[in-house]
Specification:
The complex is a heterodimer of chains A (177) and B (669). Chain A is an alpha/beta fold and 177 residues long. Helix content of chain A is 33%, strand content 19%. Chain A has one domain: Glutaredoxin, CATH 3.40.30.10. Classes of the chains: A alpha/beta (177), B alpha+beta (669). Chains A and B meet through helix 1 of A and helix 12, helix 13 and helix 14 of B.
């Protein structure tokens, strides 16, 4: 019986450790998006280069919408090369569009000049309309839309190469590893 | 150059603390006092190292050295020097550096002060403190290096956290909180030392109680300052939201408060050794859990910092501290059982014990509410949040019960209370309380919680005043002093008791202010064109004009400002603004608060239309809010009064060692 008192140590430590550990790798702000499985919002916006682009232009093609901002440091800086690499690798299969989230065009251009411009368009979402329609809570946030225009996946926070592959596989079967 | 010095100082600090920990353990085992001395010097050296590190960081911030990643992310060329200095604790890595400064400072202070005393305890306490500090230095060497460099080096940085820039309270709230957090490592270290040496006696209790009271004071002031900051800055008209980060500060405060009270019973009557040492351990572990919750990014909060690699480090530290100290406690358990003397059902002891049960109940309730979202997410994958209504429902009854106990407990005698004493001490306060509550009811106060709190406050206040008056009168009679002198001398000779009364008085003031301000606050949202007025609670608020301009102190910040005038119980003008910081996704509200002793007029700008100059304002009239801060100040003042060294009393204690236990000086905060 007296040895039983030792049980208190694992009984307290293990559950607490498990509970706190379980929090890693999950974003507390992540809430399951009601949009997944439905048609992605339609849009027509102007890019930083002054070209007008709309979701219609991408019809029949899977695409990725990445909300970012020049002030979103370090998360947007961290994921920037991931997007650039994906753009290079899947340039024929998938379109990538960046959307400025509450950012000045000049600041965004400065960011691209500093961290590299992969060449995909960046849209200016002047009044934040598109961010609201996608339900963005804060940059960076990325949405994956398949060839039928259905929203398939959503990434909260910065993308990494493995995460990019996982999400791309939902809209692009050939990308799955 | 400067960043290299900073980085080197962290490495030196790690080396010194690791050495000190090892040397202290060797000194404890071998009894070599020279090892102890050298270990103590190493700890003081680690404090110097941390100070050099902090200085290097501040210089880097002030000189806008954007080659340092921390500076690039928390500073800009336009950042004013004052904000630059306090940016030391603007983000994770700098906070840990500052934390290390305070933690090594506490350790140096304690080890220096007790260099010639407690020869058995000190090496173990020193080893524990050095180990904890080594952990913080290690975090800075590996996952959270404040001097990490970045390239390419930009010409401009991101600028400090917008919320940090917006109010001078950010210079006060984090340091106070950190002083409390880091200081609570001291009683933990003494707890470990006492368990290791089996010296969990009255001497230990006295030292630990004092060293809990000091950080407790800082923690209290830090929590109040945080509530005040949130009231002045966040623009929602409130001061406490049961945010996980607020809870993180509250949890160790609750267990530390419970400890301070149970230590009084233990000191007086012996016993409670398991209980007091468990509270000391719990308090320290909860400071780590609090830091983990706030800094690892695993719970959503207004304070959410970026997710970082230090999470696993802190988790490991929590588990090691908890498992290690629990193992030690369980190992020593057979020697700790017993020792207390029984007492009557209605006595001061039982009031203290009930107080501890209630504080523990609060701790579990708050901990449960804070961790429940994690538990649900881990088991079902759903996301839930536990909101203020749940916390209020669960905790308010316990707080009310504690308030009651706070008044009754100190008036009860040790041992067993007789009916005669009870009648003598509680009849008049009870009648007063009922009268005031009935009067408030007649005057229109209908909220049950507010009424109950008010009645209790009168009861508690009357009991307390009665205690003080009775003591003073008896002294005035026997020593032939005038009442004021008698009261002051009585208080300064029983600092713990009277400091404790002052703390209770402050809590009382805060409780009434919280109850009334949450029960009687009114608010409304109005949209006004320039020249239009709206009325709220006797005030007429008139929107004069909308101004949009860059801030004079930092041109990158655009301020959209409503200028309003008001008439009523007070009159004057206010400016409330939304500030758009370049590195913040949402505009930061700058509410305007007109404070008076009776009520605050609180105006915050929600939206504006630049074309017409119209604004949408949220107006609040919050009664008595200022008394929450005044109450907080009384609590702090009372605690300082209680801790203040009792010179004269100590001499008396030396001369007449037999008389000390008979003096009614055991109760305090």
């Amino acid at each position: 019986m007296r040895g039983l008192r030792w049980l208190i140590v694992p009984l307290l430590v293990i559950p607490l450790g498990w509970l706190l550990f379980s929090g890693f790798g999950r974003d507390p702000r992540e809430i399951s998006s009601p949009l997944i499985g439905r048609a992605a919002p339609a849009w027509t916006l102007t890019s930083l280069d002054g070209e007008t682009l709309s979701s219609e232009d991408l019809a029949g093609r899977p695409y990725v919408v990445n909300f970012w901002a020049s002030w979103c440091i370090p998360a947007c800086v961290d994921e920037h090369p991931v997007l650039a690499a994906a753009h290079e690798q899947y340039t024929d299969e998938v379109a990538i569009v960046g959307v400025l989230y509450n950012d000045a065009s000049a600041d965004a251009e400065g960011f691209l000049a500093r961290y590299g411009d992969a060449g995909y368009p960046h849209l200016v979402d002047t009044d934040g309309r598109l961010a609201i329609e996608f339900g963005v809570t804060g940059p960076p946030e990325t949405f994956f839309v398949d060839a039928d225009g259905i929203l398939r996946a959503r990434q909260f926070g910065p993308l990494t190469d493995p995460l990019m592959s996982v999400h791309l596989s939902t809209i692009l079967p050939s990308a799955s590893r | 150059m400067i960043p290299s010095i900073g980085h080197a100082s962290i490495l030196v600090g790690l080396g010194l603390t690791v050495y000190a920990a090892v040397a202290f353990v060797l000194a404890a085992r071998g009894g070599d006092s020279r090892l102890s001395v050298s270990a103590r010097r190493a700890v003081i050296g680690s404090f110097v190292a941390a100070a050099v590190g902090c200085a290097a960081m501040v210089i880097s911030l002030l000189t806008h050295d954007f080659g340092v990643r921390y500076v690039a992310e928390n500073n800009a060329t336009t950042t004013p020097p004052f904000i630059g200095v306090i940016s030391l604790w603007a983000a994770l890595e700098g906070s840990i550096l500052f934390w290390a400064l305070l933690a090594t400072g506490w350790a140096s202070l304690v080890l220096h002060r007790y260099r010639d005393r407690y020869r058995q305890l000190m090496p173990w306490a020193g080893a524990t403190l050095a180990t904890i500090n080594a952990f913080f230095f290690a975090v800075m060497v590996w996952p959270g290096n404040p001097f990490a460099l970045t390239s390419p080096v930009g010409a401009e940085g991101t600028g400090p956290n917008a919320l940090l820039q917006n109010h001078p309270f950010m210079a006060l709230h984090p340091p106070l909180l950190y002083l409390g957090y880091t200081g609570l490592a001291v009683p933990f270290a003494f707890g470990i030392a006492a368990l290791a040496t089996r010296r969990l006696d009255e001497e230990w209790l006295r030292v630990v109680r004092r060293w809990t009271l000091v950080p407790w004071t800082f923690l209290t002031l830090g929590i109040v300052a945080g509530a005040w900051w949130s009231y002045e800055v966040l623009g929602w008209g409130g001061y406490w939201a049961w945010d996980p980060v607020e809870n993180a500060a509250l949890l160790p405060w609750l267990t530390a408060t419970a400890f301070i009270h149970s230590a009084m019973v233990a000191e007086r009557r012996g016993g409670l050794k398991i209980w007091t040492s468990a509270l000391v351990i719990a308090t320290f572990v909860l400071t780590l859990v609090g830091t983990f919750l706030t800094r690892s990014g695993i719970v959503a909060s207004v304070h959410s910092f970026t997710q970082s690699a230090i999470g696993p480090w802190f988790l490991a530290a929590i588990l090691v501290a908890l498992a290690g100290s629990l193992t030690l406690l369980v190992w020593r358990l057979p020697g700790l059982i017993g020792g207390g003397r029984p007492s009557g059902t209605v006595s001061r002891e039982s009031a203290f014990l009930l107080n501890n049960v209630l504080f523990l109940g609060l701790t579990f309730a708050v901990l449960f509410g804070t961790l429940l979202p994690l538990l649900v997410a881990a088991t079902s994958g759903d996301t839930i949040s536990v909101g203020a209504p749940w916390f209020n429902t669960v905790t308010v009854p316990i707080f009310v019960a504690l308030l009651f106990l706070m008044g009754v407990g100190p008036a009860l005698p040790w041992g067993t209370a007789s009916w005669a004493t009870m009648r003598e001490r509680f009849t008049i306060p009870l009648i007063l309380a009922v009268t005031v509550t009935a009067a408030a009811l007649a005057l229109g106060l209908r909220d049950a919680a507010s009424l109950g709190t008010l009645g209790l406050a009168v009861l508690v206040g009357a009991v307390m005043v009665d205690e003080v008056v009775r003591g003073a009168r008896s002294r005035a009679r026997s020593r032939r002093e005038d009442p004021a002198t008698a009261t002051w001398r009585l208080a300064t000779r029983n600092r713990r008791r009277y400091g404790g009364y002052a703390v209770h008085l402050g809590v009382l003031v805060m409780a009434v202010a919280v109850a009334i301000s949450s029960g009687l606050a009114i608010d409304r949202t109005v949209t006004l064109a320039p020249g239009e007025t709206a009325s709220i609670g006797g005030y007429e608020v008139r929107h004069e004009q909308l101004v949009v301009e860059a801030l004079a102190s930092d041109r990158r910040v655009i301020e959209t400002r409503a200028e309003v005038t008001y008439t009523g119980p007070q009159s004057g003008s206010l400016r409330t603004a939304l500030r758009d910081y370049p590195n913040s996704q949402a505009a930061i509200a700058t509410p305007a608060v007109r404070t008076s002793l009776a009520e605050d007029l609180y105006v915050t700008l929600l939206a504006s239309d630049q074309a017409t100059g119209a604004v949408t304002l949220h107006l609040f009239v919050n009664p008595l809010v200022v008394w929450i801060w005044i109450g907080g100040a009384i609590v702090g003042g009372g605690a300082v009064f209680a801790i203040w060294p009792e010179r004269r009393a100590r001499r008396v204690a030396v001369e007449h060692p037999q008389r000390v236990p008979a003096e009614p000086s055991v109760e305090g905060a």
